[in-house]
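Handout, section 3.2

Students often ask what a structure token actually looks like in practice. Rather than define it abstractly, here is a full record for Amino acid permease. The first block is the sequence as you would receive it.
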Amino acid sequence: MNPNYSHLDPIAVVALVVIAILAVFSTKASSMFNKIATIVHLFVIAFIIIVGLINANPENYASFAPFGTRGVFKASAVLFFAYIGFDAVSTMAEETKNPGRDIPIGLVGSMVIITIIYCLLASTLCLMQNYKTIDINAPFSVAFSSIGWGWAKYIVAFGALKGMTTVLLVNVVAAMVIATSVVAFFTNLRILSNLLSISTLSIFVLVAIGILVRRYYSSGVTTKENQVKLIVFVVLIIGSSCGMSVYRAMSDGWIGWAITAPFWFIGTGGIFFMVPKAKKPKVWGVPLVPWLPSLSIAINIFLLGSIDKDSYIRFGIWTGILLILLFSYWTTCFL
């Protein structure tokens, strides 16, 4: 078989099945397991950071960002799927006493905490071991072995296994276990991470566009003229963002930036100065609209330009299949 689809991994299948059974048959037990596992995970993270910094070697940062900004953005795009799951907080809206206050705090607070932890872990790893000798398959475990703390790699491995298990427990859907197991059994992790990152970045772009539409358009309130302006400016923002992304993928120069960036400012400024807001948030809303959503569109599309062509082909095929299933479902419902 194709090398990308011949990584037979029975352990992944067994893990999925066991976790699905736990989630289906005992909600209370799975919830308790998740709480205990989270506490354990926090201790493991603290252990990695503290012990890692104790054994830090600042000389490992002598060649900081050796692959330049292109390498940074390429890695960020591939690993962007790490930032999904925060939306799960929004599903708890009906369980909170004051969702207008608690949900934004939960979303933004968890995002800030996790981002800080990610940065600390990445910094610790690169201080422990030179980037040239990092093992991409088990970076932290091998890093501890390299500093003579071989026993610590088992703690790290346990924490990693626990982390993956709890993520699966939160996101597993029993009806999808068979399909997920087939994919997990055969497919290279790199293929899956690229696909998931494209999906995540695309969804974030759509969410940012949705914020602009929700703030500046309301049926029966927005005039036809303002509606046309909004569409033109949003298209200008998306088009200029795509231009910057493509140019960055093809060149390290600045001419393309000088051409495309002004169009982004024109599109965003056009909405800000020429399109009146149709809605205002009653309790809490995204600040700095339209600048922040527009910047989100530009950044996410920019990161999309760092992902390889084959991943887009796979994404297109899967998206086409899912759209066919979706429209088939809708047709069945209406008939």
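Discussion prompt for tutorial groups: The chain has a mean pLDDT of 86. How would you have guessed this from the sequence alone?
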